[in-house]
């Protein structure tokens, strides 16, 4: 795994977000597109891939996935998928992934995690260390460590667990 500072990928991430946000939001009624992942976190280390969060009404999730596939995206294999989450990638845009999330589902954590890290430089430092420690390990080991870290951030005091802070994260 090769890691770079998120700032080195900022122009590409900004361009991809600016390109796809209006296309998706105008094509999928009541959708919301946000930039998530390490390239959306100040000071984070990243593999350079860009993740976009596409939130849709739960009743429209399957239709939204189909609409995005019509843009040339395909379902990413070997990732978790259920009726509320689907990851898609675009083969001709290496490193671009869309997380299609049902509104109100547990997968809204993508936004909460991004915002928690953007609000706490120590969490970013710990996340970066986790990534550096994973160099040379298996993808399964890295994913397990990352999952544990994300859960601790979302459940711990540094996650700003009070309702007011959580409401601000969604804004």
From TrEMBL:
Coiled-coil positions are: none
- Which InterPro entries does the UniProt entry name for this protein? GrpB/CoaE (IPR007344), NT_sf (IPR043519)
Report which superkingdom the organism of origin falls in.
Bacteria
PANTHER family attached here?
Answer: GRPB DOMAIN PROTEIN (AFU_ORTHOLOGUE AFUA_1G01530), GRPB FAMILY PROTEIN
Q: What is this protein called?
A: GrpB family protein
- Tell me which species this is from: Salinispirillum sp. LH 10-3-1
């Amino acid at each position: 795994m090769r890691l770079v500072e998120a700032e080195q990928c900022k122009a590409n991430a900004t361009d991809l977000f600016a390109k796809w946000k209006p296309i998706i939001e105008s094509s999928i009624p009541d959708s919301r597109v946000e930039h998530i992942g390490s390239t959306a976190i100040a000071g984070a280390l990243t593999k350079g891939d860009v993740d976009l969060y596409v939130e849709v009404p739960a009743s429209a999730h399957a239709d939204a996935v189909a609409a995005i596939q019509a843009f040339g995206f395909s379902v990413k294999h070997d990732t978790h998928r259920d009726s509320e989450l689907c990851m898609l990638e675009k083969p001709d845009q290496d490193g671009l992934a869309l997380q299609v999330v049902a509104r109100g589902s547990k997968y809204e954590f993508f936004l909460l995690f991004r915002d928690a890290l953007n609000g706490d430089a120590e969490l970013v430092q710990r996340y970066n260390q986790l990534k550096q420690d994973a160099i040379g390990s298996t993808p399964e080991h890295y994913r397990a460590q990352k999952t544990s870290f994300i859960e601790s951030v979302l459940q711990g005091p540094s996650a700003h667990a009070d309702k007011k802070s959580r409401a601000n994260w969604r804004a």
